[in-house]
Specification:
With 520 residues, the protein is an alpha+beta fold. 45% of the residues lie in helices and 10% in strands.
Amino acid sequence: MIPDVSEALSWLEAHPQALKGIRRGIERETLRVTADGSLAATGHPQALGSALTHKWVTTDFAEALLEFITPVDDNIDHLLTFLRDIHRHVARNIGEERMWPFSMPCFIESEQDIGLAQYGTSNIGRMKTLYREGLKNRYGALMQAISGVHYNFSLPLAFWQARLGIEDAASGKEEISAGYFKLIRNYYRFGWVIPYLFGASPAICSSFLQGRETALPFERNDKGMCYLPYATSLRLSDLGYTNKSQSNLGITFNDLATYVKGLKQAILTPSEEYAKLGVKEGDRYLQLNSNVLQIENELYAPIRPKRVTRSGETPSDALLRGGIEYIEVRSLDINPFSPIGVDANQARFLDLFLIWCALADAPEMSSDELVCTRHNWNRVILEGRKPGQTIGIGCETAREPLDKVGKALFADLRRVAEVLDSTNDNKQYQLVCDELVEAFDNPDLTYSARILQAMKESGLGNLGLALSEQYRRMLIDEPLEVLTEDQLSQEREASIQRQKELEASDTLSFEAFLARNAGG
């Protein structure tokens, strides 16, 4: 079941310095809500600057859906402190509003209450809002109001040099990209461990189901909560942030050329379903185009290969230019036990798991096997804590007990932890292993079990309100640690100025801009 990684682990133990300089970044989404838990109807607060151009504070789908972005960092504690400083700053600048502490929204009476994110009058700002209009018309606004945490991760060049024998990133871009695709294939095969341990959306507010059909056998309580008793992450289920029409795109993760080709094909392939929506209704645009994907970012995936783009460059063109620079892990629910939605244990676990994924052999995957991995994930997402739960790999029919596979994986992860701890001169990674592995013998220790118990006792809405108020007070009272008020004030003013300059520099009409940039 678990690939034999002993040889690669022995290599790692002989090359501990190859892991010096892992780089990480975090993106955290959260809904602004009022004191009674309703979705905030206010615009993006002016005190936070321009959502279009601010480096650290922006919005995602909705005007009320904040997104916080950290710079790249090689120190987990510093990274999380920076993220906490952003939260402290925001908590002080959104008045009586709070940040909703769960991935799944609550108290949304109507989809019409979800206002699209606004980015000003520049062509690029209007296009961003129009893209969201397309998402709303294609998938519904409620799905887009779901929040998550993205963990961006890159191995140091020294790792690839020692492992692959390359000289530098430019000449070794094909080999490095192949190494990251191996990581991605292992993530698809074994990444279900993330929702098992950290899934925190086993329940939803009944309002989330308004007018939606579901075959899921929900249990309900008298507080308007729907839940599955053994679920881990409804956010990752078909009810949550997925797109069924994308499952037959046939995009694979075997090499850079075929991955990019598949992605580019999807943004040029007309969709009968989306053509029926129409691109325009009178003078009003309804979507960027009627293709399967409006733009590349519409591809929903639990993990993405990435490279920082240059001005005017698409994500896939950036990958072709320079190869994979880092990967974006997209399977983390908001951690409701942390005021900033994520904690150091999760970051350290992801480091360990992603290093293991880069070391373990990973045969190429067909698009059919990718579909099979989805079934495995779904088993964990909907019934991960079920007694006697089993797990498979790919399309194999043989399955093994989930707890047995999990503990075998952690035996490998502990060896990676010892290497990392030896370079840091502490035992932080080993302690994370010791703590988390217990969840395979006792599923009640998982995030989903703990939060479901609390939701049953208090009610989902009441618990969300209590936590959001508790975290609001905590963050407001804490001093900044990494950022300063001056830096935050300067970035706010600079972001507003950058937006004004963008708006003043447009030379094309919006129609001409779309014709050049929106495909279709």
